[in-house]
Specification:
By secondary structure, the chain is α+β, with helices and mostly antiparallel strands. The protein is built from seven helices and five strands. Strands 1-2-3-5-4 form a five-stranded mixed β-sheet. α1 runs antiparallel to α2 and α4 runs parallel beside α5. It is elongated. The termini are close together.
Length: 224
Amino acid sequence: MYNSSLIQSRALLTRQQLLQQQHKRLARRIHDEISQNLTLLSLQLSLALMNPKPPAEWPQKCKQWSDIVLDLGRKIRDIVNEFQPRILDDFGLAAALQEYACSPPNGIACQLLLPGEPVALPPSAANELFAICRDIITEALVPNGVTAVTIQLEPGEDLLRVHLRAEEENAPPEAALCEALDALSVHERLFCLDGGLETNQEAGRGLALVLCVPASRQTVSHAA
C-alpha cells in the first residue's frame, strides 16, 4: 500500500506538471493566434466605420474579415481540442484517436488501425489513456526524431492494448526513450489504471510500445 501510494503520488505530480506546461502552451497560442488577430480585426472594423462611404473594394474587405473570423473559429476549436477533445467524451477513445491521427502535431505522420469491434472503456480511463498516448507521441517520440507512428487498438477478452509503433528507420535509442517515458511517469500513470507498459523491438517493423489496460473497469483499485 505504501509503494502504491508513492507511485500514485508521483503519477499525479507528473500529470499536474504536464497540465501546467499545456496551460502555458495554450496561453501562448491564445495570445499569438487569437488575441492578435482579434485586435487586428477590431482595428479594421473601426476604420471601416469611420469611412462615410464604402470603398470600392468593400466586398473584398468583407470577405477578408469573414476569413479572419472563420480562421479564429478553427484555431479556437483546435485549442479546445488540445486541452480536452470533446469527441473523447461524446464518442470514446477510438474516435478521439482517429481525430488526433487526422491532425497530428507538426512533424509527424500518424496512421490509426482500429478493430472491427467497439472499444469499451469508462470515460475516466479513456481520458487518461488518450492523454498518455498523446504525451508519448508529442513529448517522447517526436523530440527523439520519430516522424511516423502507427497507433493500433487491440481489444482482448480482459485487456485493451494500444500499440504505438515507430518505424524502424525512425526508432529512437532505447535509453533516450526510457528516459522520456520516465519523465512522463507513464508506468505510474498506467499503474493507476491497473495497466502496464511493454516495449517490443519488432524485426522489420520498428519499435513498439504497448499500453495495456483492463478492457472493462468501474473503479481504480490502486486509489489511495
